[in-house]
Amino acid sequence: MPKRALTAILDFGITGILWTYYIAGYLLFFSPFYLYAGRSSNGREEAFQKLNRRHHRYFFNLVRALVPRVRWHIPEEVSSIRSSVIVANHLSFLDPILFVSLFDKQKTIVKPDYFRLPVFGHILKYSGYMAAMGNGLYDEGMANQIRSMSSYLADGGNLFVFPEGHRSRTGLIGPFDKGAFRIAKLCRAPIKAVVIRNTNRLYPPGRFRFNTRQEFDIELALAGSFEPDYDSDSFSLSVLMSEVRTALEREVSR
Question: Which domain holds residue 59?
């Protein structure tokens, strides 16, 4: 059998194992815990977020075991982020679930279609994740919806967002939506700019198979930490966006 065909078969096999576990993790392994956590509204959101982290952490442990040629570098300065709006570039479907695996308390903004999925949509809802509103990923309605997040962030939670709104096919950072920065201003929250590298090599956009045979590094890097004076007369949302974008582009080009 040609080496190329053998590699494709291996990729399909490992991909099948990984996504079978991912789905079964929700439906079988973790469903009793989600059902128990969902019985009470008191502390339900935090319990669901912790379960989400555990499920995704196990998933990535399995990825590491089945795809040992890929090396992972997640520094403590990223994994220890708390009480922040995390702004990151977006390369692969793996990006958001990787962030979920890092933080006990995590929220994000999800396309509305995902909330209509069986089981998964209920988990998103009870986890406190939010559906994007309006014609774009963010709008004023979304900003109003998350005003209550100030206390969540102050209590150590993180909100991670991808201001490009879609996965990059070139690796370059696309145009930013203002929504993530409006959210940070409304919540008076610091912004952490995080660069993601090479998740698109492991799981490329538009492709079903994991790439299991190549050697490369997947890395998260803190590109910058921003604590704007939102109440200052000189504060400018556009300037803040430009500074964050410059920090991300500088780190991406290294």
Answer: 3-252
